[in-house]
Amino acid sequence: MNAETGSLRAGPDANGHFGPFGGRYVAETLMPLILELEQAYAAAKADPAFRAELDDLLKHYVGRPSPLYFAPRLTEEIRRVAAAQGRPECGAKIYLKRDELNHTGAHKINNCIGQILLARRMGKTRIIAETGAGQHGVATATVAARFGLPCTIYMGARDIERQAPNVFRMKLLGAEVKAVESGSRTLKDAMNEALRDWVTNVHDTFYIIGTAAGPHPYPELVRDFQTVIGREARAQILEHEGRLPDLLVASIGGGSNAIGLFHPFLDDRDVRIVGIEASGKGLDTHEHAASLAGGRAGVLHGNKTMLLQDEDGQITEAHSISAGLDYPGIGPEHAWLHAIGRVEYQSATDSEALEGFQLLCRTEGIIPALEPSHAIAAVARIAPTMGKDQIIIANLCGRGDKDIFTVAAALGVSI
Amino acid sequence: MSTDRLSTRFAACAAQGRAALVTFVTAGDPDLATSAGILAALPGAGADIIELGMPFTDPMADGPAIQRGNLRSLGAGTTLKALLAMVAEFRQTDAATPIVLMGYFNPILAFGPERFAQAARAAGIDGCIVVDLPPEEAGELVPALSAHGLHLVRLATPTTDAARLPAVLDGASGFLYYVAVAGITGANSAAAADIAAAVTRLKAATPLPIAVGFGVRTPEQAAAIAAHADAVVVGSAIVDAIGAAAEQRANDIPARVAVQVGALAAAVRDARKDHAA
Fold it and tell me: E strands within A100-150?
């Protein structure tokens, strides 16, 4: 918190810390690079030409602003549930921030556009990235193609098996997809391997990190590029309703879509903010990805944050039906917002997410990704307890085409 | 406090007109009993300083050889507590060979920096290299290490330019570890001329001994570096050999490691003679 203004939006401090979290926990080889990136980002932020080029690409290439859509039949369904529970006066109005309508089908591209413009400013000629569900990999491969830079994507071998359509997309876009066989063969191992590539090729390579985590300045710059979601949503709800919402809801893996929606509202203390972690098969099992609910403070991938780990400080495997949430950590700003209590963190299980997925398909004709299906599940739980005059904005951060095979398998349908 | 094992050992090697050989093995690789045997065999085989890896699930700066070593060790159930007990046992028979722990910050943080420093000192550890703890973040560990007389060994790399070097040297102790290549352990090797130039540059900036590692696999490579540096670190080549022997279920792994280390030690001891001739 900024001591002078009392703002919760002033972080991180000069060393990249959000309270006790964040920082730069990297090998010495990377330190000069991290410091150079920090300077380059500060210069870019102050350059109106950088902002203008970013805004132009977001409008004409990504398709922003994304709509803020009032979901009438979902709202109606929630009110029916509330009435059935004996609360006919309840059932909040639900709006969806439609970031699944972006080019490439998710919010990830907001950040990739920003980072590749930064890479170009720094004279880097090669792009690398890690990916879990493949959405960030696709978004990175997309911008690399758009700017004509060679691109290597690291992806856990297990994720490659469960996200075949996105692997093919990345290849079509000209990226090299490298399967990571080490460790749990998922997102965390892909991030290890991308860091190993970066430390080996520091002279020409830019690492586009996909979530608001990693060493400073990544959590800050990824957040800044994603806050376009919250800035638009704030203006749009004022236009639709003439007031701010009562509740914001977003799903959280690393937490980039959530911080993007939340950050512009952090100082609006009347707006309740809820982040939804993936509790997989349940918080009482070891098969979940809820690092706030089930983790402890630790250091991994360049930052101090809340991590799933055993008592010896060894990182444990996360589990979620959603590959994009299947990560044992969380961005450091979320860890801080959790510690100070500004944002409330709840969770949704695999089966609740599947219900949320089907609910949105049925009521609104929108097939959501499994990641925001966790947010929809939470909306279905919270909205029936709120008044009819209250307003919710849920972040629909990705579309579900990539997940139909996973969902079919989970529902016992063969396609 | 006993005398400082690291400075004593560096002084002894310098007096013999040679570089020190630092051998890296992962503690508990392939299992604790074998690892204790390897540890006991290293000084006799010619290792002057032992760098002992603390296993971690996510060794971001390590190549495939040491990643596999970490997994073998964790698979066999190694914990930090067990590692320290193994070192304490080693100290029963060897009070002189310095042991420097090398690893990542999270297991230390989970153990607790103060409790870790106290237990490490009691076990007979001399210092630590914490790969993902640059000077900017070291404040959480330095006071505990200092209070217990443990060195925090810093790393300089090919990307450490003149502007960065003072930050690295501020608070460095024991020795300075020069990472010869920008990259991960066990991958590429640097050109001997580049290493010599870097050692000269670092020596002008610090009185600390300079150890050079990363990409040093053979006795020939070790000798080329030993001609200039105060110490040579060999790691992945030894860990690879341990892995291969473990795969064959060999029961003489410590003896095999001793033969390999003996060849490295002979090359390091002869390096400056060859150089002079």
Answer: 126-131
pLDDT surpasses 70 at B277: no
| Residues on chain B touching A300 (C-beta within 8 angstroms) | 58, 106
Name residues whose C-beta falls within 8 Å of residue A269's C-beta, 6 or more positions apart in sequence.
none
Which residue in the set A31, A192, A297 is minimally distant from B58, CB to CB? A192
- In chain A, the residue whose alpha carbon lies closest to the alpha carbon of B157 is A29
From A306, which residue of chain B is nearest by alpha-carbon distance?
A: B106
Mean pLDDT for A32-46 is 96
What angle (nearest 5°) sits at the alpha carbon of residue A225, between those of residues A223 and A227?
65
- The predicted structure's pLDDT at residue B243: 97
DSSP run (H or E) holding A275: strand A272-278
The minimum CA-CA distance between B73 and chain A, rounded to whole Å, is: 12
**Mean per-residue pLDDT of chain B:** 95
Specify the residue for token string 């150890």: B211
Three-class SS of residue B252?
Answer: coil
What's the pLDDT band for B1 if we cut at 50, 70, 90?
very low
Q: Are A133 and A166 in contact (CB under 8 A)?
A: yes
Mean pLDDT confidence for B244-255: 96
B61–A298 CB contact, under 8 Å: no
B155 with A315: Cβ contact below 8 A: no
What's the pLDDT at A161?
86
* Strands A17-18, A21-25: pairing kind: antiparallel
The tokens of A300 are what? 């991994």
Report the C-alpha gap between B252 and B246 in whole angstroms: 10
- Which residue, chain included where needed, has tokens 């076990």? B123
Q: What structural domains and CATH numbers belong to chain B? A: 5-276 (3.20.20.70)
Question: Given an 8 Å threshold on Cβ–Cβ distance, is A309 in contact with B179?
Answer: no
pLDDT digits (tens, 9 = 90+) for A352-387: 999 999 999 999 999 999 999 999 999 999 999 999
Find chain A residues with C-beta within 8 A of B106's C-beta: 298-300, 307, 309, 313, 315
Task: Record the tokens describing residue B23, joined without a space.
Answer: 């051998």
Residues of A contacting chain B (CB within 8 angstroms): 15, 23-33, 35, 182-183, 188-189, 192, 195-196, 199-200, 202-203, 296-302, 307, 309, 311-315
Contact B60 A32 (CB under 8 A): no
> Which segments within A309-355 are labelled E, that is strand?
344-348
Pairs of CB atoms within 8 A across A/B: 115
Instruction: Quote ipTM for the complex.
Output: 0.95
Is the pLDDT at B57 greater than 50, yes or no?
yes
At residue A2 the predicted structure's pLDDT band, cuts being 50, 70 and 90, is low
Read off the pLDDT band of A4 (50, 70, 90): low
Quote the Cα angle for A337-A339-A345, to 5°. Answer: 65
Q: What does the pLDDT look like over A136-157, one tens digit per residue?
A: 999 999 999 999 999 999 999 9
Give me the percent of chain A exceeding a pLDDT of 70: 99
Tell me if A314 and B134 make a contact (CB, 8 A cut-off). no
CB within 8 Å: A200 and B61: no
| DSSP secondary structure letters along A194-216 | HHHHHHHSTTTEEE---SS-SST
Residues of B involved in catalysis: 51, 62
Distance of alpha carbon B264 from alpha carbon B94, whole angstroms: 21
Q: Name the minimum distance, in Å, from the CA of A338 to any CA of chain B.
A: 20
Q: How far is A194 from chain B (nearest CA, A)?
A: 9
Share of chain A above pLDDT 90, in %: 92
**Looking at CA atoms only, how far is residue B45 from chain A in angstroms?**
31
